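Risk register update: the risk of archive-format incompatibility is retired. Evidence:
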Amino acid sequence: MSETKKSSFTNGLNVFVNKFSNNTFVKSIANGMMMTLPITIVGSLTTIIGMIPGLPEIVVKACSLGTSISSNLITIYVIIGISSAMAREKKGDIISSIILSLASFFVLTPITAFDIGKEKPAMAFELTYLGSKGIFVGMIVALVVTWVFAKMVEKRITFRMPESVPTAIAKTFEAIVPAAIIFIIMIMISTGFAETKFGNVHDFIYTNLQTPLESLGGSIWSALFIMFLSELLWFFGIHGSMVVGSVIAVLFTTQAYANMEAVAAGEVATNIINSFFLDAFKGPRALALAVILVWMSRSEKFKSIGKISLVPSIFGITEPMKFGIPMIMNAVIFIPLTLSAAICVGIAYIATIIGFLPVISVNVPKNLPTFLSGFMAAGWQGLVVQLIQFVVVLLLYLPFMKKLDSQGVAEEKANLENQ
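Archived output:
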């Protein structure tokens, strides 16, 4: 490929990816899901503590409560996060958007009668619709309702209040007309679906959309492809993790929360491929590369980059090396760059299916130090798997980095001779 064609292809790819990652809906999903991170991590910590043998019964119950509240109500947190992210993107009223999104979601969620004995049946929402099973409906409702609400306000489909009315009061009245229209439409949708064989929107979406997507998300091949794609984008100078973040949220998140719910209910987690698994076992690639640079490079340039990158790499930060080596558009290290994450996920997957690594059901912060994250996610087995990944990545990068290092030494020698 000529330099002109290569430049044209790279520019075209950059334009496409920028359009995708800056799309309002994609950004809202990625940023909104990020807002749920604190509660899921706290819930995961209670899960980890609850699994410690020999704890008093009261502590186990307290931990189970923490896990349940974080996982069984995850759809509510997702709605709040995505609705606020979308409202921020559209410069709309955040609080009104969240309230309207939640109200719309509850209108679409069936209320079930439960027989609790001699008393009258209790009417309640089933937790299953508020947990992992309701995530897709929650995401759709938060995106659509917030977007429509913002559009109606923008088009002035509202009460026109006199300028003398204080802004806070005027905003409240402005929300009445669009809120009423959206709310009535949601009631009509809910009533209409009640007459179908599905009975409600949740079961319709779950059958026709969520289940096929979960099958795709549950596939190791789709996980490996996403890992490869993320690093391939980095090769072209595009922040791959940010681009695929929303895709991972759609394909792999429900399986993660289904695992949390299962553990909270005292059952066994079964979804091997999930977002928690991918976050924890993409592999200690940054640390392996930094070690090569520091201890195996003869070039002063690469050794210096390694020293600067060593501490950030412990926390999984690769930018100093990506831009310092550089790794972007560097054909010499194309293979280890694009394959290392997929290989690491493959190692963790094999370790799981042979029964060595437990199915991951807890969420650990992405930037926890390497090896500690593996231990937090899966105990000593997680630590061992990350050590294996570290050695494999180190061996994968080594021959390619030796070639780069030789080039660096030759350049430095030539520079010295020219001085």
